[in-house]
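Reader question, answered in our methods column.
A reader sent in the components of a multi-part assembly and asked whether the whole thing could be modeled at once rather than chain by chain. We filled in our standard form and ran it. Here is what they sent:
COMPLEX SIZE: two components
ENTRIES:
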Amino acid sequence: MPINLWRFASPQMFYTLAGRSLPWCLGGAAVLALAGLTIGFFVAPTDFQQGESYRIIFLHVAAAWMSLITYLALAFWCAVGLIMRTRLSFMMALALAPTGALMTAIALWSGSLWGKPTWGTWWAWDARITSELILLFLYVGFLSLHAAIDDVRRADRAAALLALVGVVNVPIIYFSVKWWNTLHQGASVSLTRAPSMAGTMLAGMLVMALAAWLYCIAVSLMRVRAIILERESDADWVKALPELRSLAHRA
Amino acid sequence: MTWGSASEFFAMGGYALYVWGSYAVAALAIAAELALLVRRRRTLLRRLGRSLSLPKPAA
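And here is the structure of the entire assembly that came back:
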C-alpha cells in the first residue's frame, strides 16, 4: 500500500508524528551517548602520541560532523520550501538552525581546547578552523536575518536564500584539509581507506556520532513542534489539542 | 582498563583542563538547550490555554 508522504507535510500531522517519535530519539541519544562515553573513556586505549588529550575526539568529531549535516538538512528544507512553497519546510529549517549553531560552537570550543596541548595554540587561521567559524556565522546570520524581518513568510524566504548561498561553505569545510595543507589534521574516517586508529577508538567515535545524530533530531523536533504551535495558534486543530484542553479547564 | 584509580581518571594524564573543559561546556550547553525548549513549550501552552478559556467576544 503506498503511503502518501504529503500527508506528513501538513503541520498538524507532523506535530503529532514528531511528538510520538520524540521520546525514542531522546532516549536513543541518551543511551548511545552513555555507551559512546563508556567506550571512549574506559575501553579505548591511551594514544601513544597524544596521551589522554585525544579523548576530546569523541566529542569533537561528533559535533563537527553534525554541524555540517545539520547545515545540509537546513539548506535542503530551505530549497524544498522555496520550490514547493510548503510551510512546514521553512519551520523545519528554522528549527534546525540553533542546534546546528550549537554543534558548530561545540566543535570550535573542543577543537580549541584540543589544539592548545597538541599544537601549542588555542586558535589558528587554518583553513578548516576558519571555514568552520564561517559556518557558525552562517547559522547566526540565518537566525538574525529571520528575526529581523517582521513578515514571517518574507523572513522564511530571505533566510532560505541566505542558507542556500552559504551551502558552498560545506564542501569547503569538508575538503579543506585536503585542499590546503595547514594545521588541522586530515579526515579521521574515510570510506576508501583502512581506519587509521584503534578499533575501539573508532567505535567510540561512531557511537558518539550516532548519539549526536539522534540528539539533533530530537531537539529539532522539539523546536519545530513549538514553532508549529506558534504559527498555527489560530487553527482549530491546535485549539482541540488535548494538552491545551486540560490547561484551559484548569484556568 | 586504562585507569588505576578515580583520581587518575580525573587527572586525564595531565590534560584534565582540556578534556573536562570540552565535555563540561558541551554538557552545560546541551542541558541549557533542552531546558530552554521545555520552558518555551510550557509558556506557549499556558498562553494558548489562557486564550482558549477567555469568553468568546460577542458577535
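What stands out: Chain A is about 75% helix and 0% strand. Chain A has one domain: 57-244.
Send us your own complexes using the same form.
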